[in-house]
Design a protein that fits this description.
CATH class of the largest domain: Alpha Beta
Order of helices and strands: EEEEEEEHEEEH
CATH topology of the largest domain: Nucleoside Triphosphate Pyrophosphohydrolase
Structural class: alpha+beta
Number of domains: 2
Radius of gyration: 20 Å
Strand content: 25-35%
CATH architecture of the largest domain: Alpha-Beta Complex
Distance between the termini: 54 Å
Length: 188
């Protein structure tokens, strides 16, 4: 068991951060916004955006989609996507999501899009990937999984706007070896 570090936060067995002293909300010296600070050691907790990773996976001319088995958006369709975990790269996270949600193996061929979504404090990094075989099945977070032609994609039942943005961008760059990642579309 690692020794406790008394000069900063303790992450305990659950991984939840516990400051050694009293929690104080204040603006730290040199900062411009209120943050949680340890009253004893001065450790500053930076509550930063969550990183979401996913992949638009294809098998020949079909797109891998999964139907969500969890809230939010239970029953709606999406590409394999989820929160990045500690200790993994964004690419590893995207491939892990492909496995967890669709039990498929894939190879990443490039970064497709980066979406900054400040209203929910998230950054989405979506990769372009090719499935290594046509083998897939719903994972524990999916009610269903399928390979869809472009015309078969359930456009009216997509879980989130970024799913449609990513699918459309992948179609636009299909056949290109090099392309810039797409950002979030401008709001109308």
């Amino acid at each position: 068991m690692p020794e406790k570090n008394d000069s900063g936060p303790d992450f305990g067995e659950t991984g939840a951060m516990k400051l050694p002293g009293p929690n104080i909300r204040t603006i730290p010296v040199g900062d411009d916004r209120e943050r949680l600070v340890c009253g004893d050691c001065g450790f500053v907790v930076y509550d930063n955006p969550k990183i979401i990773v996913g992949a638009v996976c294809t098998w020949r001319d079909r797109y891998l989609m999964v139907r969500r088995a969890i809230e939010p958006r239970l029953g709606y369709w999406t590409m394999p996507i989820g929160y990045m975990e500690l200790g993994e790269t964004t690419e590893q996270g995207a491939l892990r999501e492909v496995w967890e949600e669709a039990r498929a193996r894939a190879r990443i061929s490039g970064l497709l899009s980066i979406y900054s979504i400040p209203e929910i404090s998230q950054v989405h990094m979506i990769y372009r990937a090719e499935m290594l075989s046509d083998s897939f099945e719903p994972g524990p977070e999916s009610l269903d999984a399928g390979l869809f032609t472009w015309d078969e994609i359930p456009w009216d039942h997509l879980a989130y706007p970024n799913v449609g943005w990513s699918l459309n961008h992948e179609r636009e760059v299909k056949g290109l070896d090099s392309f810039p990642p797409r950002g979030r579309p401008e709001r109308a």
